[in-house]
Amino acid sequence: MAWWHAILLGIVEGLSEFLPISSTGHLTVVEKLLGYQIDDAGVTAFTAIIQVGAILAAVLYFLKDIVRLAVAWFKGLFSKEARSDPDYRLGWGVIVGSIPIAIVGLALQKVIEGGLRNLWVVAAALIGWSVVLFLADRASVKQTGRRSTPRGEESMTIVDALILGLWQCVALIPGVSRSGATISGGLFRGIDRVTATRWSFFLGIPALLAAGGLQAVKASKSISATVGWAPTAIGTVVAFVVAYASIAWLLRFVATNRFTVFVIYRVVAGLAVIGLLLTSVVTAR
Description:
By secondary structure, the protein is mainly alpha-helical. It has one domain (3-278). It has helices at 3-16, 23-33, 41-61, 63-78, 86-107, 109-113, 119-146, 158-169, 178-188, 193-218, 220-225, 229-256, 260-278. The chain is globular and about 60 Å long. The model has no long low-confidence stretch (mean pLDDT 88).
């Protein structure tokens, strides 16, 4: 892989990983436009590994929150009094909410890395999930109108986290968006936009770190033979830098804005992919 391809793909990953627009979908399209075989083992591994750069940016950004939850959870294991701390419950929420995607991801790994790596799937998911995100955003506005205060992080339960974890599993389909799926689930449950967005990060950290680490171990030979480790390292570093900036922007944005702009963008992006396919600029696989 050329170094500038690695930089470009790192930028795409960093921008799209945490926005509800699907990083895997965008990477798949850009990789195809650059002439790569998207179901090649090395390219698939590259895609998963550079996501680690983006997720490390989330770890750094939310480090204080992660440490706070981890300390509260650990204390609660040994102290009955410490279990009254809401952070102890939230710590369990992160653990329980991360379980569904681990099970489903491992069970369907071959399908996800094979048959679903198809640009028709990406286009359909981009457009289809825009409808879900629109309905979730609309439901959130209606719920806010009926309540004096939307549900915040202090109201999150383990059941909430588990349900968000189940929503996150849908994002194994390229084009859906992991953050978009998790945020949609949170909005449907009456959770406010900022909390739903924050929890898309909290639940994404274990899932993406595990997926990237597993790919690094399993596909080391494929990376060496096709993409190369130097471009993979470059893409990962670029993804880290760009993702950190996108996280800060997204949290400020959702505090005062709805998700309409992302809904519109997803539809336009999906139609653009369909246009590329129909004009034979790219092939589906």
